[in-house]
Structures are given as structure tokens and as C-alpha cells.
Amino acid sequence: MSLPPETPLLDQVPTPDELRQLKPEQLRQLSDELRSEMIDAVSTSGGHLGSGLGVVELTVALHYVFNTPDDRLIWDVGHQCYPHKILTGRRDRIRTLRQGGGLSGFTKRSESEYDPFGAAHSSTSISAALGFAMANKMQDKPGRGIAVIGDGAMSAGMAYEAMNNAEQAGNRLVVILNDNDMSIAPPVGGLSAYLARMVSSSEYLGIRSLASRAVKKMSRRMHQGIRKAEEYTRGMVTGGTLFEELGFYYVGPIDGHNLDHLIPVLENVRDASEGPVLIHVVTKKGKGYKFAEESADKYHGVPKFDVITGEKKKSAAGPPAYQNVFGDTLAKLAETDSRICAITAAMPSGTGVDRFAKAHPERSFDVGIAEQHGVTFAAGLAAQGMRPFAAIYSTFLQRAYDQVVHDVAIQNLPVRFAIDRAGLVGADGCTHAGSFDITYLATLPNMVVMAAADEAELANMTYTAAEYDDGPIALRYPRGSGTGVAIPEVLEKLKIGKGRIMREGTKVAILSLGARLEEAKKAADTLEAKGLSTTVADLRFAKPLDEELIAKLMRTHEVVVTVEEGAIGGLGAHVLTYASDEGLTDGGLKVRTLRLPDIFIDHEAPEKQYDEAGLNAPQIVECVLKALKYNSTSVEEARA
């Protein structure tokens, strides 16, 4: 396909099939158009900006050189997949990113054949690509597994576990290390580009292969000595000795924005018989958009913004975000308690630990994308008398469940788990929802599980956790801003396993756990208007249960409904088990549990997600009326 330079190219390449018809000299123009399209799209939808801008040229080059979708291209995490989506038949929907019914903000198998593997949690790409590569090899099918993984994601042990197991895949596995932050590469320029082309060329690899076969006929000691000499010689010039030790052939570093450098190296790797190969590519987050280049952290994930000024659309000022309440409270507590320390796994601002770190840098630890290490590190700190808070998103704490069980709970060590993003999270969808932590924590012996109904409760629970040394304790809280309640100057140390009555009634009891409390109160208002006297209790604790309070309410009310922002197996299951054990339902008591449904809820506005989940006030009311077998439109019948 040969078009005049002024002709827009992006319109002509709806899929990689058309992209591969372009001439190499046209790819620069296409990349510029792709970058502009992405900036404009994210300005209207919001989403992850800096990561995608940094891989525009790399995206173009990969689809140009490799035969996608037969060659399986896997983007680690998926923050950087927007240019990929534009080039793979989804440009017409790119402005629906992260909106209900629109494109996912991450790769998603059900969305396109060009998304062979869903990703949203970090450091999974090499393992998945190895799976694709080995499956093709065993079935004698063509096609490679190509993983694109960032330098931050390489801090997770899983990436190294995968590389250590990759040798059997041979040249069917290609790993692209996208180095955009850690500065682990030497300066990138013409010399390093030349060396990368040279060491990936078929001539060099052919000579290397011939020499390797000859060397293998020598003694084992000579063979190993010569191999090490070659590795270290290349390592001194190009880096990569670590990857060579793991069985990879290392190429790089190369400039990830220079297509004249990228294309020849990728073509060499595509055509080579040597492998598996790791290509070290150096990129810049936010490349091509000055506001994102100048403030990569602030333009990693963005709301809607003005493309010309870079100004982000601001929502009206409101209550502080939950993570900031936690961070500020913990920092204040640490002023008078030198044992308090905080651990985050690459999410300091997302968890509020950045606020703690500003006040107490010597007691703040960012372990990188290494939740497993972070939890066991916290266990070690606790065993030696510190009061560690492991502040980790609910969805990411899942990655360290064995460590929670084995290293913390079994040993009954007082690690404090600050579980952010509990419940549904809106635009990030099901991969980031905190759906399961009540279930997977409350089932563990020795564990205490609290859930904050508002920001004042979160502050009190943070203080309670700091003072609790009898074993592990968790406090969960949602994403976003609080309810606007004032945070008390003097914090309350909560009594473990005790809830509170928010309003008293006689016929219906709503037992709420966590941030659904306001919806429970609204439901009570509606039920009262229908003549149904309603009690609302904030249980505060999923474990241990306030058995005394639960038993009292079950003995004095006709209907009891539990409400939680968690999956099946959480609060409701524990309440039902207790009620069954104690025979509290033998007298005809009607018990209903409202929790997240047994599905993964896609990205949408949080209010609509909770409607789908059946956890807003109208659904609570409907549940009660159905239990009473009353028609919600018949007020007189409901009063009977």
C-alpha cells in the first residue's frame, strides 16, 4: 500500500492485516496519528494515559513484524493496551473505554481475537506467553507467545519463575522488557542500536550456533568457561547477564521510540532460531504529550481532560478519599508510637501510604509489585515487636493468600491489613473489585475482620488495629470519597467483635457491614413509611461476630437481612451458620442475605454496579417485602 505522505494512514489500517501492507517509511506517520488518536480518546473517556503513550511505536512495530493474532501478543497489566485496541478493529469504540457497555480498560478475551489473554494484575504475561508457546509447540502449530512486560512488573517473583521455566519454548517465546522507569539500562543511542541489530542478526546467531555445537564437543569445563565468557562479554557491552542466566538470549537496550532501530531487531528475532529471546526496549512514559512527559505519575491514570491545556476535569470538592483518611490517621498515630510502620506494594498514593511516608520515611516500605513478600515481611516485623500495617488493595491481597494463611494466621502474628478498594470499584471493573476478602479472611482462625461504614469509623478502626496485638486484624474500606462525617479529634478504640445499633425498630432488622450502611438507613426510611418498624445495626465486625447482638435481634424481629459488599461466603454465611448452630431460626424467623451476586460485574458507574448487585436501598426494601410476602405497592397490606 503506497499512499501520499499527506494522506491519513490510521483510517486505512483498521486491523494489523492492513498495517502490514504499509512501507516501513510510513510507520512514523502512522505512529504520530495513533498517538494523537489515543490522546483525544482518553481526554473524553478518562483512563490510563502515560503507559499507552510510551508504547505507541512499540505497538506499531510488533503488529507490523509479527503475524498477530496467530502470534499471541500479551500485554502485561494492560494499562498500555489502548494503542493496541485502536489498531485491532476497535477504534470506533475507543471512546467508550471504561464506560458501561464499552471497551474494557484492560485486555479482555471476549472482546477481540487480538486479546488472547486477559490482564489487569501485574507480572502474568511471561507465564501466559510461555503457555501459548508451549501449546503451539506440542501441537506442532505455528505461532509465538510474545509478552510485553514493564520494568516495574519485573519486580514480581512470578516473572522470574516464568523465565526460569522458559527454555523449552525455544524461539517460540519472545519477551519485550519495556523499561520506562527504573533506569536499569545504560544510555541508548546509535552504538547500542547497532549492537542490538548485530547480536540479533541471523549471521551472528548462525555463527554462535555453529560455535556452540563445536564447543559442546569439548570438555564440560571448557564448554562452560567459553559460554560464560561469551555471556559476560556481551553483558558488559549490552547488559543482560541476569536474563542469560535464566536461559534467555538478551538483545538490547534499544530505543523504543525509534522505528528504524525497532523494526530490524524485531525482524531478526522473528526469523531467528535462537531463543527464547528477551528484547530490552527503553521508552518514556507519556511520550509525545508534554503534560504527561513532565508528570508521568499524575498522568498515569486520568479523568477526562482538555487536550490543549492538559487541565483535568475536576469534580466538585467533597469529603476526603478513604485512602487519605487512613494515611493521615496512621501518620498521626505513629507520632506517639514508634512501633507503627507501613508497607505498600507499589501503590503508595493509592493506599495513602505516601502520606505516612512523608511524615515517617524511615518506617515506610514500598516493596514493589511483590505482595507475597510484603505480607511475609510484615509478619517478620510483627514477630520482632513492630506494629506493621500492610496496606494492599483487596484484589491484590489475593495474590498473597498463602502468606496470609501460613506466615501470619497460623503463627497468630499481629499484622494489620489495611484493605483498600473493598467492594465494587467502577471503571476498573471486575479485575480490580474487592469482592472476596471478607470470605477469604473471615474463614481463617485467629483473624479479626472489620469493615468501615464511613471515614470516622475508618479512623477509629485504624486506631483499634494499631492497639491490637493479639493476632492478625484487617480493616476494609471502599474506593473514593467518604460520606462527609467528621473525623473525631479523639479516636475511639472499638471493642473487638461488637457492633452498634443505629436506629431501633420491632419488625425488620437490617444488619449492615461496611459502606452499605447509608443504603440500609435509606431502606429503613422507606420501610418505616410503609409501616414496617425497622432496626438498623452496623455490625462493624465480620469476625468475630457480635453474637449477643445478633441473637437479640433475631429473637425480637420477624425478618433479619444481612447486607455486605462481598461475595457469597462472607458475613451472611457466618450469620446463618451461627443462627443454625444456636437454633435461632426454629421459630419461623425469616433470614435473608444480600451480598454480591455469583458473577463478575463489568465496569460501570459504581451506583449502577450496586444496582446490578442488588445492594442499593430499593433492592433492600424489595428483599424485606418479599420475605414478608407483601406487595410493595400495598401500604395497608404491609402494615397488617
Range of helix content: 40-55%
Largest sheet descriptor: 7 strands, mixed
Strand content: 5-15%
> Structural class of the helix and strand makeup?
alpha/beta
Number of helices: 27
| Widest sheet: strand ordering | 9-8-10-11-13-12-17
Kindly state the number of beta strands.
19
How far is the first residue's CA from the last residue's CA?
78 Å
Overall geometry: globular
- In the predicted model, the low-confidence regions spanning at least 5 consecutive residues are 182-188, 232-238, 633-640
Tell me, rounded to a whole number, the average pLDDT: 89
Structural Rg: 28 Å
What does this structure look like?
- The structure is a single chain.
- 41% of the residues lie in helices and 14% in strands.
- The protein is α/β, with parallel strands linked by helices and 640 residues long.
- Strands 9-8-10-11-13-12-17 form a seven-stranded mixed sheet, with helices on both faces.
- Strand 12, helix 21 and strand 13 form a beta-alpha-beta unit.
List keywords for this structure.
640 residues; alpha/beta; 7-stranded mixed beta sheet; 5-stranded parallel beta sheet; 19 strands; 41% helix
Fold topology:
Layout: H1 16-19, H2 27-45, E1 47-48, H3 50-54, H4 56-65, E2 72-75, H5 82-90, H6 125-138, E3 145-150, H7 157-163, E4 173-179, H8 190-200, H9 202-216, H10 220-238, H11 241-245, E5 249-255, H12 259-271, E6 277-282, H13 290-294, E7 301-302, H14 322-334, E8 340-344, H15 348-351, H16 353-359, E9 364-366, H17 371-383, E10 387-393, H18 394-397, H19 401-409, E11 416-420, H20 437-442, E12 448-451, H21 455-467, E13 473-476, E14 500-503, E15 508-513, H22 517-529, E16 534-538, E17 541-543, H23 547-556, E18 559-564, H24 571-582, E19 590-594, H25 606-613, H26 617-628, H27 635-639
Parallel strand pairs: 2-3, 3-4, 4-6, 5-6, 8-9, 8-10, 10-11, 11-13, 12-13, 15-16, 15-18, 18-19
Antiparallel strand pairs: 1-7, 12-17, 14-16
Helix pairs in contact: 2-4, 2-5, 4-12, 6-7, 8-12, 14-16, 14-21, 17-19, 22-26
